[in-house]
Amino acid sequence: MQIDIHHSGIYVICRISGMKSKFAEIVAYASQYVDDAVFKYALKFKNGGYFKQVQTAHKLLSPKNFDFDEALEIWMPFHFLPKGGDSSDGLVTAPDSKIMALLLEDIRCSSPSHLLYRLGIGLHCFADAFSHQDFMGFNDSYNDVHLIQSVEEKGNKENPGRLSLRLLDRWSSDSMSMGHGEVLNNPDLPYAEWAYSRGSKTFRIRNTEERYLPALKNIYDYLNYFLGKNSQYCAHFKIRAFEDYLEKFRWILSFKGSPEERHRNWLKKIKENYFEFADFDDTDRNIGYDEKRWFSQAVEAIKVSKATHHHYQKYDYHMFRKKDGFEDSDWVKFMQAAAEHQFLIIHCLLPESGLIIG
């Protein structure tokens, strides 16, 4: 899925589930930031100390996308959670798996300081399990399928087809067997109707009805359970059934455009109170997303000269200072929550399922 669901869609589901806007904003930001935290190097601060970043995504054209070590650390824990089990397809992504259930239960009882950030990260993983289902989060022949029917992303200067050609120019076609690369962006387009074949079997997918509405409904149900156990985040108004919003969701998911255009459409509707939040407030009226906001609130990045500071090359010629409140900032809490999530998946849940040797 993309920013329209990971940010604005998650925000809406949090709100209609009964979460206060100020908490929903944190959860939604954390959910989307999983796709934007693309650095893993440790920051060295001019005013003392180091901080190790946790990488939760890759830049799109990074060759590391096809490295199994990177897949184990990034793609599988955050975007293609394996379903587990004893069968030969245990590394395939599925939303209704035992591993997913264990992850969601672990989130519910996380430490209070990281709870909302763990929730946002976990909901990103949960949402992606619906759109990425039936693919593996690493380079494997299982992902080598044949795309039969495809939807082009209109309104985007760089549509999925063109983007895939750029990938093919840079790497061999075998590299497209990472995740859902062979079927382009079709799984991530909420309005797409598409088809592919694997061997002799053909799959025809209607994203809105078969993946996106079920994803929103399952996230809504989980959040009702989560808030029942963590009432400190509740807004305390009467909750309406998910079915009351079904046509609104169906309509907004049908909107065609780039990820940014779809995201803006969601934000516009939120600000108009299209979803009829009972406690509609200024947070709802001003909701937005800037991928640099949390980092900028925690860290001052100072541009330095390339000529005289060549040792800052890996930092894109920036030096860093911790800002006041760094240790308690949203960015630091997200990084710590991401580390907890990653460790749980790699060193606990995957070994327990027999997929990884612990």
Explained architecture:
With 358 residues, the chain is mainly alpha-helical. It has a three-stranded antiparallel sheet with strand order 3-4-5. It is built from twelve helices and seven strands. The chain is 43% helix and 9% strand. Helix 5 (115-131) runs antiparallel to helix 7. Mean pLDDT is 89; it is low at 153-174.
Task: Please name the defining characteristics of this protein.
globular; mainly alpha; 358 residues
Terminal Cα span: 30 Å
Question: Residue-averaged pLDDT, rounded?
Answer: 89
Q: How many domain regions?
A: 1
Gyration radius (Cα, Å) is 20 Å
Number of strands: 7
Write the layout of secondary structure elements.
Blueprint: H1 3-16, H2 21-33, E1 42-44, E2 50-52, H3 68-78, H4 98-108, H5 115-131, E3 146-149, H6 160-170, E4 193-198, E5 201-206, H7 207-229, H8 246-253, H9 259-271, H10 282-285, H11 293-298, E6 299-303, E7 318-322, H12 330-352
Antiparallel strand pairs: 1-2, 3-4, 4-5, 6-7
Helix pairs in contact: 1-2, 1-7, 1-9, 2-5, 3-12, 4-5, 5-7, 5-12, 7-8
Quick summary of this structure?
The protein is mainly alpha-helical and 358 residues long. It has helices spanning 3-16, 21-33, 68-78, 98-108, 115-131, 160-170, 207-229, 246-253, 259-271, 282-285, 293-298, 330-352, and strands spanning 42-44, 50-52, 146-149, 193-198, 201-206, 299-303, 318-322.
